Amino acid sequence: MSAERPQISVYSETGDSCISTIEFPAVFKAPIRPDIVGFVHKNIAKSNRQPYAVSSKAGHQTSAESWGTGRAVARIPRVSGGGTHRAGQGAFGNMCRGGRMFAPTKIWRKWHIKTNLNQKRFATASALAASAIPALVLARGHRIEEIQEMPLVIGDGIESLMKTKAAVDLLKAVNAFSDVVKVSNSRKLRAGKGKLRNRRHRQRRGPLIVYNEDHGIVRAFRNIPGVELVNVKNLNLLQLAPGGHLGRFIIWSQSAFALLDALFGTYKKASDLKKDYRLPQNIVFNPDVTRLINSNEIQQVLRPAGEKHQKRPYTQKKNPLRNNGVKIRLNPYARVLQRAEIIDAEKRKAGKLKKERVQFKASTKVAPRTSTTIDIQSLKTKFTRHSQCIYYQNYVYVTIIYDHFQLNNHSNLDISFEPERTIIKETNSPILSNITNQKTFITEIYHPKTSSTNNSFSISNNNVVILLRKLDEDSEWSSLKFKYYLNEDEMNGEEEKWVLTNENVRKCSELVEKQSNWSKASLSSELVSTQAIKDKDGLIVQIKSKQQPSIIGES
């Protein structure tokens, strides 16, 4: 829309001074709608067409009759006579040479298009508002670079000019003659048959001069190339927007410019000369969408434009079950699953896939020490051992039971618990009544970081748990030596020793697999299974837990 200006300057015929000012008409604030202007211009321009049609006799100015059937030729009417090539040729039909056209044009065609009156007034107001914007006038091709103000208003003395020379001098004085020169230089010979129909040349449009009363202004300006004149009461959209293009360069007389408010009205009152007409309202305050989008307020909240992606006209469909790239685009989590499978395969290959240790809590109804010990057949040796492991109060308890060849009653020795816990007394088992009279097991733990190597500890619930955890978590526990003390008759001052190392454990497993006649026992508990073998250095007990892969004990 045009800029908000309260007053417009009125220039003299000489163009050197501003003689007065005039109030800016409200019609120049009307909304600019190029779509409505183009539609109305097209309909109005159709009303100026001259009817045309072909002759009603064309194609029928010959004598021709059909030959009928039975001659093996088409039944189209044929020229009669003989002695010439024309005889026997088809006539009248649109498919025949020299025949009439199909559906000959008639002069009673609907040439004129009726347009709504309010729509025509809307288009006229839009064209007038566009003529006050210099950018639109320049875009249409008019040379107004030196014009002092738009719209250009000249005093009423312009309406009294009688001579063309005076009119040219006025255009030069207001710096509008350059637009006339442009029109004069654009005169070209028309292409086509319009040259034969009184339309031999074509040229651009120049300034439009709008006046209120004719006191000789028409005679003065009518012979200047490109200049058109129109009365302010007879404004025509064909002249305000030639070709439907907004931005015609208009030169106003002072009286014609002042009459616009009475002609079109204002936003406060209706028109005085048009019945029940009011200026159209703006749907948006600023119809310049480009200016709105590029404004700082909108650009601050918009994200930056991304790269342009042009869709290919044809895309080959690929099977996502076979094409890994398509599968990942459809399901990005498939890459995570593939990576997890590779890691699991590597762990299984390296033997590092550990089983989770599942802890089972003992039932409160059953005493933890009342689990039945599985007896095994006595070997033909002086020692027979098997072991048992139970879970109680978040601790692993190791029970080593042995049968001495001199003890016919097969007394059982339980060394799993610390004396201060008095778990044995709670069981009230008569088999364990002689526990205080028996020997105890002593172990030694060697740690490379400790200077002392005589750290003795008893096989108790707490120590066994610490030992088993360290064997799995800390690889620096290099060796564990268990000592079993026989009675004085069999001991002879010597100790039978066996060192707990990886090599000895491996040998243990091999011996268990090879010697099937040695005793093997599996406990009913879901927690552990045990094996016992006899070696030349002593009896070896191997305890395996489901929570930790290797729990090794040796006596």
Automatic annotation (TrEMBL):
A molecular function GO annotation: structural constituent of ribosome
Keyword vocabulary terms for this entry: Ribonucleoprotein, Ribosomal protein
InterPro entries, per the entry: Ribos_uL4_C_dom, Ribosomal_uL4, Ribosomal_uL4_dom_sf, Ribosomal_uL4_euk/arc_CS, Ribosomal_uL4_euk/arch
Span of domain Large ribosomal subunit protein uL4 C-terminal: 275-350
GO cellular component, one term: ribosome
Pfam families (alphabetical): Ribos_L4_asso_C, Ribosomal_L4
The keyword Ribosomal protein is assigned to this record: yes
Record has Ribosomal protein as a keyword: yes
Coiled-coil annotated residue ranges, if any: none
Family indicated by similarity: Belongs to the universal ribosomal protein uL4 family.
Name of the protein in question: Putative 50S ribosomal protein L4e
